[in-house]
Specification:
The protein is mainly alpha-helical. The protein has helices at 10-14, 18-35, 48-57, 63-76, 80-84, 88-95, 101-119, 127-131, 138-148, 159-167, 176-186, 192-205. Bound molecules: iron/sulfur cluster. Iron/sulfur cluster binds next to helix 10.
Length: 228
Amino acid sequence: MPTKTSAPPRRRLARETEAERRARVRRISARLEKAYPDAACALYHQSALELLVATILSAQSTDARVNMVTPALFAKYRTAEDFARADPRVLEQEIHSTGFFRSKTRSITRMAQALLERHGGQVPDTMDELVQLPGVGRKTANVVLGCWFKKNEGVVVDTHVQRIATLLGLTTERDPVKIERDLMALVPREKWTWFSNALIQHGRRVCIARRPKCEICVINRYCPSSRV
Ligand code: SF4
């Protein structure tokens, strides 16, 4: 049922100051923290290399789908050298079900070759070095930096984060890099990785695309797009 303190009217949101928006984000964070205190990356991995490969595989796919493929993949390919020397036709078959298997195979083998050539086969832990790797953009780099190296260098902007940040009125941008910039300005740095993982979980469980469950959403009173 609508209440006096439910969704901030869009009219008021348009006049929301930066300070008010930050305060609203603090309240949203507090609610999400209770709902998803341990929000973390859902991709199966046991090393930075595995997380890097899994994140490349997750493009245009789901974590659940990727997690069906990666245990066997990582049992076979254990090092950057293994991936660099993989037979592309074999690797394509092994990752086929994640979609876009040809371009993903190219990305993985070239990325692994670059790791060997530039980093002694190790995954680097800086944004600059990660985004220089073939097939690795800011989103993938943020996943590896935040979830493996525990470095808050940015906010992961996937489809869930993009959708919910827009619904919450935290950005009007469509470009993920600009959305990330807006979120970095609103969310305290120490929470960047957790915040994106929490929004991703919220997007899977509650704020589902095209059928959001606003009636059970813990942040509905702070959401200008709430239907309750
Ligand atoms: S579920 Fe509804 S209230 Fe919650 S964030 Fe999504 S649109 Fe807003």
